[in-house]
Amino acid sequence: MPKLTNNGKLQADDWQVVSKESAPALAEMFSGQWLVHVKWYVENQEELTNRNNIGVWLDSDDEAESVSSVIGHLPVIGVNFPVFTDGRGFSIGRTIRERYKFTGELRAIGNFMQDQLFYLKRCGFDAFIVGDKVDAESMAKSLADFSDVYQAAVDQPVPLFRRRLA
Amino acid sequence: MYVYDEYDHKIIGERVAQFRRQTERYLAGEIPPEQFLPLRLQNGLYVQRLAPMLRIAVPYGMLNSGQLRKLAHITRHYDKGYCHVTTRQNIQLNWPQLEEVPDILAELAQVEMHAVQTSGNCIRNVTTDQFAGVAPDEIIDPRPYCEIIRQWSTFHPEFAFLPRKFKIAVAGTQSDRAAIYFHDIGLQLIKNTKGEIGFKVLVGGGLGRTPVIGSVIREFLPEQQILTYLEAILRIYNLHGRRDNKFKARIKILVRAVGPEAFADMVEKEWLNVRDSANHLPAEEIARARTFFPEPQYLRGLDDVEMMAPINALRGEHREFGNWLSHNVQRHKIPGYRAVTLSLKFTGVPPGDLTDRQLEIIADLADRYSFGEVRTTHNQNMVLADVQASQLFELWQQLRQAGFATANVGTLTDIICCPGGDFCSLANAKSIPIAEAIQREFDDLDYVYDLGPIELNISGCMNACGHHHIGNIGILGVDKKGEEFYQVQLGGNSGYNAALGEVLGPSFSRDDMPQVIRKIINVFIKNREGEEEFIDTFTRIGMTPFKESVYAKAH
Ligand code: HEM
Ligand code: SF4
Question: Among residues B97, B238, B390, B498, which one has the fewest Cβ atoms lying within 10 Å of its Cβ?
Answer without folding.
Answer: B97
